[in-house]
Here is the input.
Amino acid sequence: MPRLRISLTINGEPRETDVWGGESLLYALRERLDLPGSKNACEQGECGSCSVLLDGVLVCSCLVLAAQADSHEVTTVEGLGAADDLHRVQEAFVAAGAVQCGFCTPGLVVATADLLERVPAPSDDEIREALSGNLCRCTGYQKIFDAVRLAAGIDA
Amino acid sequence: MEVLTPRSLDDALRLKAELPAARFVQGGTDVLVELNFDRSRPAALINLNEVAELRGFLRENGALVLGSGLTYAELMQPELATALPALAEASRTVGSPQIRNRGTIGGNLGTASPAGDALPPLLVESAQVEIASVRGRRALPLAEFLVGPKRNALEPDELVVSIRISPSGSRQTFMKVGPRNAMVIAVCSLALSVDRERGELRAAFGSAGPVTGLVTAPLDEAERFPAAVAAAASPIDDVRGTAAYRRHALRVLTGRALERCLA
Here is the structure.
């Protein structure tokens, strides 16, 4: 199978890997670059569990060719915080009980971090719009909204 | 599968002329779904992300020239949203933030789905599709560019470079029916404008015929217009809705859009 080599910056570090031409950035992150935080579910941009930042822009990594990320910058959920040094959005998700099975959580954390970067104190409508591409099948979203407000320092 | 990444429009067109079976990929929101589900396996992919000529927009003698690489998120920004309000409204209904950040207007034309959200507002505004190949350039009215469901008038060596519009400045709006506000492929959609300069009501419907269709009427026929739009559509029954529902919804949407634009 023909291979091509890509070089990119992931979470601030230069990385390189060989990829197949037709594979997604999500596949390269999970299977070749040892970054399984971004989750693979729908593979068609419906669920948001693979959300990452590409050059600072929120995207579904399942809909970006790995080859298109060559020479670009990617931030994954692993780049936001570590187990002993959580991002404030991750802390808020824990504190608010916004995690049940946890599968959608990485994508929601990345999308929420992106929202708060652009809109520090979002309204409920702005939260709803910003997270409309991230599906959670456990929580019913109430606790997720609580977590976003908590991370933003908004009194509910 | 090879991925070729040209750095200029000339290089992109040369590659497509050499490899007509190759597939262009810009935002990837349509192409990657096909690849991920193994629905297509093109001989090669030509990645347009590094072709600067396809990005952004410019003003030329009162016309707007939208680069085919313009994303829905960019179409929602104030300058373009002021000039092309229905297109901005349609862009806001596309997918999710993640999809709007990547999906492009050129991709909507390339895919040429009857449900393409950008197509009704472009048709109402008489958009011209500007096409290039190594053989030269040509332009087609959007109505001639869309030739069937998921079929357009592009030759194998051609690429949509830009979309040219002379904004009418008319009152206009876009509406879409679906099971929720986000992440919806239109059950049916409608763009409508009240063009007082031409003395015309203009409506274009999506997901209600093999291609996006345009219906026009004199300004004083507003009362009959909802029925006229519903009658002009040729919807089918499919997984998203029935033909009868689509026709009904178009009548309702046209009435509401007229109320909004005549107010």
Remarks:
- Helices of chain A lie at 25-32, 77-80, 88-96, 105-118, 124-130, 142-152.
